[in-house]
Structures are given as structure tokens and as C-alpha cells.
Amino acid sequence: MSGALGYVILFTFAIIFIGISFIVSKKFPVEGVDDFVVAGRSIPFGLIAASVMVSWVWTTTIMGASEAGTWFGVSGGINYSIGAIIPFFIFIPLVVALRRKMPKCTTFTEFVRERYGPKVSAVFLVFGIGIVLYVFTEQGVGIGIAFNTIFGIPYALGGTIPLAIVTLYIAKAGLRGSIFNDLIQFFVISIIMLVTVPVILNYIGIHNLHQGLVDVATNPSNVNYNPDALNMGSSAGLRYGMVAAVVAMGQVLFDQGYYSKAIATASTKSLMRAYLIGTVFAWAPVPILSGNVFGCSIISLGIGEGAGISVFRFL
Fold first, then answer.
1. Is residue 167 domain-resident?
2. Could you tell me the residue range of the domain that residue 71 belongs to?
3. Please, what is the end-to-end C-alpha distance for the chain in angstroms?
4. pLDDT of res. 3
5. Residue 94 located in a structural domain
6. Residue 2's pLDDT is what?
7. Crossing angle (nearest 10°) for helices 155-204 and 2-27
């Protein structure tokens, strides 16, 4: 029964996405490469903010931050969030300068080619494609594991079908279709977080969660023993945040999607507002809640073992 339900979800997912792509492409027909990649350069900042938030919510935002919570306690999710946001404070002035210097530019690769020549542009393109393949593959892995674990659908099938659907969707509707889809996902993610976090806190109890973390921090016999479990500024957590910043830097600066959305905004002011709201106010709470509610709940209940703590103490 669960397997059948999984296939029904995949089929429903396909129908919804394909339907949206046809509606968007009919209402907003794509007229050339520029329109396909940057959606007419007139998207309101609210849509871009929601799209940026959703684009940065991927497998590691929830699973990685939750794991950081089990490893480092309260500092895990917080440092993951801070580290993953830092690249955007480099990206924003960069893309603002790009819009000013090359107002008709469609991709960042164009700027690199004009500024540094075709050879450097080719190298940048290779790294950019590598980043896209990495994110694309990781998302597929996460989806495949989820469908296999929950519904028993073969891992390869559960990971491949959704990726194929999304690829067809983007090919049909372009960036504008991607942004509309992101808006739907924004509400879905927000609802899920607003429901699951209170349910978990109500089930465990905030007092019990805190007492469990106190035991983790003070009881050497606790399997998850970590003296810094309640220390928001723990050195291990800070080092983890630095690693998160380095990894995120490559993803943000080499991913054409963020440039396309920045260029698609109606104005430079809209660009700055969209990216600040989308990252700091909309995205940042997700890993913080994942680390401090999902991750910390696990160790406070005495489940699992923070195996990564010893590793990061020696970094």
C-alpha cells in the first residue's frame, strides 16, 4: 500500500508540475534566450525573495543542520546558518556591480568572458557546471532516499523521476516558471516548519529538551556527552560554520541560478531587498530550527552519538 501511495505522489507531482509549466508558458510565452534565462527583468522583489529562500533550502539545510545539532548542540544550527549566509554578502555587491557595468548581461559567464577572456570564462563555466551537477545529484540522492525509506520505491527510480520532471518543467517554462514553482514551495516549506516545530516541542516539552541538553553538557556518562552542547559560541561549532561558509561560497558564486534571479529583478533596490529578505529573514530560521529542534531533540532524548564532535575538536 505504501509503495502504491508513493507512485501516486510521483504521478500527482508530475501532473501538477507539467500543468503549471503549460499554464506559465501559455500566459508568459518565452521570447528568446534573454526572456528564458532572466524572465524579462521585471520580477517583483517578493517573488525573488521567496525563490531565493527556496533555492537555498536543499537537502543539507534541514538534514545537515539537524546533524550539526546532534554534533555540536545549540551552536550547530546557528553556525550552519551564519556560515551559509556569508557568501550572499559577497554575492550581492558583486551582482549589483554587474548590473551597473553590463545592464544587458544575461549570465555571469558573459561578464567573465568580457573581463578576463575566453580561457578564464571556459574554466569558470566548467566549475559552474560542476556545482550544478553536484547540487542536482545531491537533491536526487535525498529524494531517492526519502521515497525508498518511506514508500519502498526503488532508490534509483525515486531519485530519477522527480529530477526528470523538474528538468522538463524548467525547459518548458524557463526562469519565470521556476520562480512560480518556488513560490508554491515557499508556502509548503513554511507550513511544514510552522507545523512540525511546535508539534515536536509540544511532544518533548521545552523544559525536557533543555534538561536533556543540560545532561548532555554535564554528564560524562551520557552517550552524547559534549560540554559545549549549550554553548552558542563553541569553538567546534564555529569551525563547522567556517567550513559551511567555504562550501557555500562556491555554490553561491558559481551557480548561475542566483545570477539569473538577481538580474531578473525589476531594479537594483529590489535585488538587494529580495536577497536580504530571502536569506536573512526567510531562509536563516530554517537551519537554526532544524539544528536546535530536530537535532538537539535527538541528543536530548539520548538517541545516537555525536561522533563528529571528536573530529572537530582536533581541526
1. no
2. 36-125+186-308
3. 47
4. 73
5. yes
6. 67
7. 100
Residue 88 lies in a domain: yes
Q: How confident is the model at residue 107 (pLDDT cuts 50, 70, 90)?
A: confident
Quick: pLDDT tens for 174-206: 888 888 888 888 998 899 899 999 999 999 999
Q: How many structural domains are present in the chain?
A: 1
pLDDT at position 59 over 80: no
> What percentage of the chain exceeds 90 in pLDDT?
41
Q: Residues 123, 35, 125, CA angle at the centre, nearest 5°? A: 5
Residue 238 exposure: Cα atoms within 13 Å on the Cβ side = 6
The answer to whether the CB of 285 falls within 8 A of the CB of 202 is no
Radius of gyration of the chain (CA): 21
Residue 282: pLDDT over 90: yes
Q: Model-level pTM?
A: 0.82
Query: How much is the pLDDT for 286?
Result: 95
Residue 48 lies in a domain: yes
